[in-house]
Amino acid sequence: MEIDALDPRVRQGTREIRLSPNEHILLYTLAARAGAVVTYRELTDSLGSDGGEVRNNSLARHLSSLRRKLQDDPERPRYIETIRTIGFRFVAAPPT
User: Fold this and answer.
1) Residues 18, 8: contact at Cβ < 8 Å?
2) Most CB contacts within 10 A, which of 47, 58, 66, 94?
3) DSSP 3-state assignment of 34?
4) Domain count, the chain
5) Average of pLDDT values for 28-49?
6) Does 96 map to a domain?
7) From its phi and psi, is residue 67 left (phi > 0), alpha (psi between -120 and 50) or beta?
């Protein structure tokens, strides 16, 4: 997967995926810390929110939409893993 910090398009092989600005920020934030857990608070901060504007259910909707676009199954994540009660982790791909 190719993620550009400035362009809200992602490449998955030859497939190009258009993301909303919030989806792009969330994906970039998670991928920049691949393998590490990113808390709910850190993700809402990345969206420029003090926590009042972007609540966990709104964050969950953005992440659900992002997973759908990436064709990522939350039960068997290839990209975004849910860490219950804490946040999310971008699953680092094994070296090829």
Assistant:
1) yes
2) 66
3) coil
4) 1
5) 91
6) no
7) alpha
Q: Is 95 inside a domain boundary?
A: no
Q: Is 42 contained in some domain?
A: yes
Burial of 65 (0-12, 13-18, 19+ CB in 10 A): middle
Residue 52, domain extent:
2-90
Q: How far apart are CA 16 and CA 70, in angstroms?
A: 10
> Does pTM top 0.90 for this prediction?
no
Question: For residue 46, what is the domain's CATH number?
Answer: 1.10.10.10
Token digits of residue 45:
């901060």
Helix (H) or strand (E) holding 52: none
Give tens-digit pLDDT for 7-21: 888 988 899 999 999
Find the farthest-apart pair of alpha carbons in the chain and give their distance in angstroms, rounded.
42
